[in-house]
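From the pipeline queue, job 12 of 40. The input is one protein chain; the requested action is below.

Action: predict structure.
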Amino acid sequence: MDRHSRFTGQPPYKRKKEGNHNNKYVRSNCSSDVSSSVAFSHSPVLSVRRHLYDMDFPLYKQPVEVGYFSLDSSRRFFNDARMLRHYVEADQCPNFNLRDGYTDRFIKRDDGIKERLDHLLRWILENRSKLQRTPVDGDASGSSCRLSADFVTWRGHLTKLLTTPYETQEGWLLAVTLFNGTYYISEVETEAARRNRENRTERHAEMMYWGYKFEQYMCADEPSGLPDPSGVVNTNEAFCTVVQTKLTDHSLLFSGEVDCRDDSSRFKAAPGYYVELKTSAEICTPKQRSNLHRYKLLKWWAQSFLPGVPRIIAGFRDNDGLVVSLETFETAKISQLIKHEQNCWKPNVCMNLCNAFLSFVKKVVTQDDYRVVYLFSWEPYKDVSYSVHKDSEYTFLHDWYVREMTKQGS
């Protein structure tokens, strides 16, 4: 992953034309000092047009796992690997029944509760000794320290950025706060996403369960153990890796959920022995195979490439939820699978857009204040724009985190 060319192009920032100002690009008339919860709209925008990012693949360093944490059946945080499951190889035609247990052995996490960065922030507080820090400029006492990362976020938020150049259906909102020299990025649910969540059909809800059920068939709780598909599927439970890496000049600390570990892997260290598990409709025609390459593999690749997970195992199921075949995709080889697809997505475009967005954030987010949120907004076929909010509903860094990160000796 770290052998690609360094991206040196300038991010394609531009300014909107406003009113009748002799066609000059101007900034909206607002103060740089945000003194209330009123939102100010700003004019600089970031284009996401694909051709602007079709250049050499940017330098992306091999991700290094610096820690992990677990969330139990009640969503309680533990700074350990108790929820890590272990991959068990299955027959190529396993006939797993993904519908089993949906009505009587399923505990679903309340996805209306927005946890934001809370679990990752708790991990940071408990593992500050692992994160190299230097005193904030001008603070000779060392009472307030910087993290070693420019950005802290969830892997899923970065995945959204990678897929943005090819997304035609769903927009996003990303809240950014600059605190002690680090940019924290947390997703905000859009109104469209909220409506979709609240109006899911029963069929859609059951098919979401199928993915979790597939994991239950493929994983054991202990090394050398066996899967127990008769158990309860509880989507509160999770094991998350925390990795550090660098995208060109942007140092990243992010976390993402991991499905399981392959104890027989040739890789003896994380994230090399992690495995991502996916389900998809069975493929019966060349057109269906092409659609898999053009759409699903984009998100699968982005999700696994970012933390350095090398292998994706997909269960292909029929319309009744019966898994009829398994297929393994090596993350590093997905780009070869898709290169002959006409007008298909390009990994370099995805990563260059992500790099440009992070540069854009650094350019416009200037107030180092945990109470200030820069809300970046994007809708398909539009540019990325932003607004600024103080002491608003979008604030996501808690007092308990700020207090611990700024107190003497932290």
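Job complete. Helices lie at 118-126, 155-163, 191-198, 202-218, 286-305, 334-338, 347-364, 399-406.
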